[in-house]
Amino acid sequence: MKAFVCIALVGCCCVALEAAQVTLKNGDRLTGTIVSLTDKKLTVHTDYAGDVVIDWAAVTQFTSDQPMVVTKTDKQVVSGTVNAQDSSVAVATSSGTQTIPQSDVAVIRSQADQAAYEKSLHPGFLQDWTGGGSFGFALARGNSDTTNVALGFNADRKTTTDEWNITMASLYTTSTASNVTTTTANTFGGTIRYDHNLTPRLFGFGMFSGLYDDLQDLNERLSPNGGLGFHVIASKTTTFDVLGGIGYTYENYSDGTINNYINATIGEILTHNFTATTSMTENLYFYPYLNDGGNYRGVGNFGLASKFYKALTWNLNFGDIYNSKPIPGKKDNDLVLTTGLGITFGAKSK
């Protein structure tokens, strides 16, 4: 019996010794499992507090209890248990210990996290989509009968090398007075854009947009565009891109008017997460027609989304479509403001 107790105590001590140890500059110590070191943040999983995130600058020493994958700034990868102390990181590999200056360490991940990261580099096309749909409906009956239906959809798929973005929106509104029904809005349009990173900042893009607008007598507007863009801001909470290129615009109106334009493409796209549940998107595109001097069009959109219960969101969207040379009898500017409920999808959606 005594022998069994001694063996159990020795086993417990061994487990304690194998656990990862983290020592902070203020003298505090943490015991747990090293998860990762990214963006100068050390993540440690503890039994008593879950995942704890620590600034690496506040750490004086840590050791891992399991083999880790260390990626250097020159993209070389080293695997083994890690002992980081002062300004260096010692990795006990199968061929011996490698000592790496702290400044040369880009990322440290657990083997499970590294496997997930490598899988994310080459996901299947149907994987990693995030986005949502929105629905707005208003109905009035009495002296004046009105019906308003607004639909929206957006989907985004971003990897380390490229990004797909799809947006669609529709608005249909009728009003009946004195037994006369009038359609006051009937539009449907969307955009598909693909970006591919050429460098960490520079990207190439291709974009195709289409629009139907009954009140503008527009049967169809089709516009493929392409060019280059620049990631001005690319943080976890905020992204801001600017882009420029060239494209083609085809317009077909119900009065028989057909337009064919070669256009320049100038645009900016901004996203910002205010909190884990509230986000904002904004974009503005300007298309001056190169073969029709002084003629141009512009499209701007602004949206707010706030999650209030699981995947349910409240959405507010504002859109502006400007055409400097509409067909006779039509205005040059259309403003649309819609609000309603939505639903999100995708593991990354907040």
**Beta-sheet strand percentage?**
over 45%
What is the terminal-to-terminal distance? 55 Å
* Major beta sheet summary: 12 strands, antiparallel, barrel
Secondary-structure element order, as H and E? HEEEEEEEEEEHEEEEEEEEEEEE
Counting helices, strands and paired strands, the structural category is mainly beta
Which geometry do the CA atoms define? elongated
Radius of gyration: 28 Å
Q: Can you name the CATH architecture of the largest domain?
A: Beta Barrel
Give the count of structural domains: 2
CATH superfamily of the largest domain, by name, is monomeric porin ompg
Helix content: under 10%
**CATH C-level category of the largest domain:** Mainly Beta
Stretches with pLDDT under 50, minimum 5 residues: 1-18
Tally of individual helices? 2
Number of strands: 22
CATH fold-type name of the largest domain: Porin
Would you mind describing this structure in some detail?
By secondary structure, the chain is mainly beta. The chain folds into 2 domains: 20-121, no CATH class; 129-345, monomeric porin ompg (Porin, Beta Barrel), CATH 2.40.160. It is 8% helix and 67% strand. It has helices at residues 2-18, 111-121, and strands at 20-24, 29-38, 41-46, 50-55, 59-63, 68-72, 77-85, 88-93, 96-101, 105-110, 129-140, 145-158, 162-177, 180-197, 202-213, 218-234, 238-253, 258-273, 278-288, 296-309, 312-323, 333-345. The protein has a 12-stranded antiparallel barrel with strand order 11-12-13-14-15-16-17-18-19-20-21-22. Strand 8 and strand 9 form a beta hairpin. The longest helix is centred in the N-terminal third of the chain and has 17 residues, at 2-18. It is elongated and about 85 Å long. It starts with a helix and ends in a 5-residue tail after the last strand. Residues 1-18 have low confidence and may be disordered.
